[in-house]
Amino acid sequence: MSDIKKVVLAYSGGLDTSVIVKWLQDEYQCEVVTFTADLGQGEEVEPARAKAEAMGVKQIYIEDLREEFAANYVFPMFRANTVYEGEYLLGTSIARPLIARRLVEIAQEVGADAISHGATGKGNDQVRFELGAYALAPGIQVIAPWREWDLSSRESLLAYAEKHNIAVEMKRGKKSPYSMDANLLHISYEGGPLEDPWVEAEEDMWRWSVSPEKAPDEPTYVELSYKDGDIVAIDGKPTSAATVMEYLNKIGGENGVGRLDMVENRYVGMKARGCYETPAGTIMLRAHRAIESITLDREAAHLKDELMPKYASLIYNGYWWSPEREALQALIDNTQRYVSGEVRVKLYKGNVTVVGRRSEQTLFDENIATFEEDAGAYNQKDAEGFIKLNSLRLRIAADKGRKL
Predict the structure, then answer these.
(1) Which residues touch 244 (CB under 8 Å, ≥6 apart)?
(2) Catalytic: which of 16, 38, 181, 230?
(3) Would you call 125 a catalytic residue per the annotation?
(4) Are 95 and 117 contacting, i.e. CB atoms less than 8 angstroms apart?
(5) Active site residue 181
(6) Does the model's pTM come out above 0.90?
(7) Among the options 66, 79, 96, 286, which is catalytic?
(8) Burial 316-348 (b: 16+ CB within 10 A, else e)
(9) Catalytic residue among 18, 116, 125, 359
(10) Which has more pLDDT, 3 or 36?
């Protein structure tokens, strides 16, 4: 511990990280530098400055990273149509590489000996933060208080804060029973009543969306313009990546879009139940697949679908800063060169329905696909030889008496 003179802490200003500031100061006798990232969590991050100052922190970093997060992390992930275990849109997972990168960069800027985070020893985030940090700065030291201290519950953290005069919410029994994480892509809920996977989530838990039952009786239509696989305009108006997500979160939530209740397999080995609200991501996934459906070659599209689960696992498990993720990203981005055009979606009572798609790069040919007269664009007799050649191995096996 005597080797640690300065630590950069990923700091939210909440109970856990506020306690960590004091704990680091006392246990390691070191200077603490705080880093707070605004990733679009919907809450003011500036109050974290006053809290940090009250505990004697001299170097305080508070940064608005919303545009960088959306454009350089979320959008590349959605070019791959990324979904973990068939449902999860990776809202927490994709935020960790950016935070890890800035932790390391700030540590290098201020000459810190280590970085620290508030992730618990039971979760995935400890893995994501630390794999990212080690990939970017192999010699960095990481302090994970939850793996060292004997504070094992919210009550023990509150008692520690009270003992050391740390300014946090001290009221017991009034705080949300859920562990929550939010950014531009989603808000997540874990713990409390959700620890029983049979118990339905309470309606007043959800913060970003109305229930589908209470959504408007009239649908909302949105037109999304794509260029090279990314949304660049909404209803014909050019907009930035972060603004795209903010707008789609708003109208998606108003229409009951984006709720998810699932049990997932954590990288550390356990199953965990979580609830998520991802309005923008739900719309973006459906719309991106729609524009790809007319612009992407069949085998390129199928290859992407085969590789996507691997890509999703890399992000979920914390390997954003890995050579295999970068290699997959290069392949994915190469497929997006012609993924441009417009998609029109209808939002209605929790559903996202694609109702139109068009592109100057379309591979959809009405002259070939039509059920009407095609003026010889497609010779239906050609299908006979195609079928016979593709059935050859099946016919040979049947002739030999092989049973299925």
Answers:
(1) 70, 231, 234, 280
(2) 16
(3) yes
(4) no
(5) no
(6) yes
(7) 96
(8) bbbbbbeeebeebbeebeebbebbbbbbbbebb
(9) 125
(10) 36
Of the candidates 49, 154, 179, 374, the residue annotated as catalytic is: 179
| Range scoring the smallest mean pLDDT among 41-45, 244-248, 325-329, 346-350 | 41-45
Model pLDDT for residues 280-326, shown as the tens digit of each residue = 999 999 999 999 999 999 999 999 999 999 999 999 999 999 999 99
Would you list the DSSP string of 194-206?
Answer: GGSTTSPPPGGG-
Q: Structure tokens of 172?
A: 């017991």
> Any idea which residue has 């630390």 for tokens?
130
CA 402 to chain CA centroid, nearest Å: 48
Q: Which numeric CATH code is attached to 179-296+339-358?
A: 3.90.1260.10
CATH of domain 6-66+91-163: 3.40.50.620
Distance CA 309, CA 388 (A): 34
User: With contact defined as beta carbons under 8 Å apart, do 273 and 197 qualify?
Assistant: yes
The boundaries of every CATH 3.40.50.620 domain in the chain are 6-66+91-163
Every domain of the chain with CATH number 3.90.1260.10 lies at: 179-296+339-358
- Residue 102 is among the residues annotated as catalytic for this protein: no
Assess whether 337 carries a catalytic annotation: no
